[in-house]
Amino acid sequence: MAKRDGIHATKAQIQDRCRVLADADLVAFLTEDHDLIELTTEGEQYLEGEVDVELYPYPRHPRLME
User: Which residues pair with 38 in a beta bridge?
Assistant: First the structure.
């Protein structure tokens, strides 16, 4: 993602964001090195506006997950 046009983030920033999304069950890591992710059913529902985000806890900061 860091190499795509229009995305102005470092690899570390993208990894942190993906960890937060995985912690919220919106994406899932497919590899042990966390290089490949997929959108979960909950993630798809969130993007389609079918999930009430108020029912979910606020995402943890990446540093708090370590």
Answer: 28
pLDDT of residue 50: 92
C-beta separation of 29 from 22 below 8 A: yes
Q: Which residues pair with 28 in a beta bridge?
A: 38
CA distance to 4, 5, 46, 59, per residue, from 26 (Å)? 21, 24, 8, 11
- Low-confidence residues in the chain, pLDDT < 70: 1-5, 62-66
Tell me the CA distances in angstroms from 50 to 20, 25, 39, 46, 55, one per residue in order. Answer: 20, 15, 15, 6, 12
Domain parsing of the chain, residue ranges:
11-65
